[in-house]
Amino acid sequence: MKAYRSSLLYFQHNSDAHQSAIHEEDGLLVVGPNAQGTQVVQAVGPYRDVVARYPQVPVQHLAGRIIAPGFVDLHSHYPQTNVIGSPADGLLPWLEHYTFPEEKRFAAPEYCAQAATFFVAEMLRNGVTTSLTFATSHPASVQALFLEAQKRQLRLITGLCLMDRHAPPDLLNQPSSPGGLDATEQSLIDSEALLKQWHGVERLGYAITPRFAPTSSDAQLRGAGELAARYPDVWIQSHVAENHEEIAWARDLFPASSSYLHTYADFGLLRQRAIYAHCIHFDDVDRALMRDSGAAAAVCPTSNLFLGSGFFDYAGADRADFQYGLANDVGGGTSFSPFHTMLAAYYVGREGQTKAGLSLSPQHLWWQHTAGAAQALGLAGVVGNLQPGCEADFVVLNPKATPLMARRTAQATSLDELLFAMIVLGDDRLVEQTVISQAF
Ligand code: GUN
Ligand code: ZN
User: Fold this and answer.
1) Distance between CA atoms of residues 189 and 172, nearest Å
2) Phi (first) and psi of residue 339, to 5 degrees
3) What are the residue ranges in the chain where pLDDT is below 50?
4) Pocket flag, ligand 1, residue 329 (CB < 6 Å)
5) Ligand 1 in contact with 98 (CB < 6 A)?
């Protein structure tokens, strides 16, 4: 066992109290193995109280630092690191001109390996300890990312990108040998093989990953839904309602479905552990469908602002009471930093401000990238918090990392002021250390 003395930030257990953080100015975090040998939080609270219960445990004193839960990121694309900051008129030309050409390069396993190494290191350097991310349509891209995440002990969920139409031919899922299975059947067989190989191995999980409805045939979506029904504890990830042209295209291709979102429901792809990126242009019927199915939205504010997609409607989501959390959406998104993502979410909350005056609190922003995102993944109490039993993933923040951060945070007279100063001024320099649960 080991203990860390510092200022602590974490969240209430009770999900109804999800917007309120606990701040222990002089706290102690005790970590040690659980019965399975996983390094978890054993105790957390005021230094004076907790140290009395663990007198033998060595304590590392991190003076002036803040320990907070490792960030949970609900949506990104590991093959898109190289397209960050590529401007386009909107989503569809951006995919065509920048994203698809870059993703083609993942046909080469060596290219996958170096991209995976960079991506995992960059997520960890920015304080992300749980990541749900896209790979490409090449099975080797999935293998490379799982291997790297396993090496670095990042908690990672990914899957083979399913695309059997409306993309460049060499980026579509490929058929097996001539005369064998067609591309659609092969993509489903490859998905299941990868799922069996990796899901539940150490900290890794599989996500059934249709890119979005327009690039899959009915048969592929149906097959993906059947796979999801056979493996209820694997995740599903896709995109929905990001951009007006995309929505019109999806409505055209699936006229029998009552909305773009409903297309996924019609193929059995809307359920708990299904995470849909963007969810911007919804009506209340869509919102109720999100809530009733238990699916969750990955809110991607830097991407939505960069690509001009629109603004996630926080008031609408809260009114319908469906789950959501934050995501960097690299490379439509512009940053690996959870601080940049939280700040962009604040801008989005302000822009989408209703007459009632919605403005997101810093505690709520932070929750969306930690305990709230974990809850959306069905991993509440496992990651995203520092309550006893949670995996011991945390960041050590140095609020004096830059002259401006030091000056501004020193003026903070409340928790909200401190969190706001870090959200507005923070980036990778604020993250002094990312500590991962060393489990195996
Ligand atoms: N919709 C389908 N594919 C993508 C993608 O790669 N990025 C974003 N932002 N939206 C998508
Ligand atoms: Zn995306």
Assistant:
1) 15
2) -70, -40
3) 355, 440
4) yes
5) no
Strand 71-73 relative to strand 128-132, pairing: parallel
Q: Does domain 2-70+385-435 have CATH number 2.60.40.10?
A: no
Q: Which of 81, 172, 239 to mutate to test the pocket of ligand 1 (most atoms within 8 A of CB)?
A: 239
CA–CA separation, 341 vs 46, rounded Å?
30
Q: Are strands 2-11 and 161-162 parallel, antiparallel or unpaired?
A: unpaired
Contact between residue 40 and residue 32 where contact means Cβ atoms under 8 Å apart:
yes
pTM of full prediction above 0.85 = yes
Task: Spell out the residues 6+ positions from residue 109 whose beta carbon is closer than 8 angstroms to its own.
Answer: 140, 143, 144
Neighbour-count burial for 234-257, b at 16+ CB within 10 Å, e otherwise:
bbbbbbbbbbeebbebbbebbeeb
Measured distance CA(290)–CA(284) in Å, rounded: 10
| Residues ≥6 apart with Cβ < 8 Å to 167 | 100, 211, 215
Give the tokens for residue 252: 């055209």
234: its two tokens? 């694997």
Distance, C-alpha 366 to centroid of its chain: 13
* The CATH fold of domain 71-352: TIM Barrel (3.20.20)
Residues with CB under 5 A from ligand 2 (ion): 277, 329
Domain coordinates in residue numbering, the chain: 2-70+385-435, 71-352
**Residue owning tokens 């690299």:** 330
**In this predicted structure, what is the pLDDT of residue 440?**
46
User: Edge-to-edge, what's the strand order for the sheet holding 394-397?
Assistant: 39-46, 21-33, 2-11, 59-69, 394-397, 431-435
Residue 71 alpha carbon to ligand 1 centre in Å: 22
Q: Which helix (H) or strand (E) holds 115?
A: helix 109-125
Which DSSP string corresponds to 301-340?
HHHHHHTT-----HHHHHHHT-EEEE---BTTB--S-HHH
Strand 155-158 to 204-210 pairing: parallel
Query: Please, how many CA atoms are within 13 Å of residue 121, restricted to the half-sphere of its CB?
Result: 6
Residue among 245, 193, 238 nearest 88 (CA): 245
Closest CA to 66 of 33, 117, 27, 120: 27
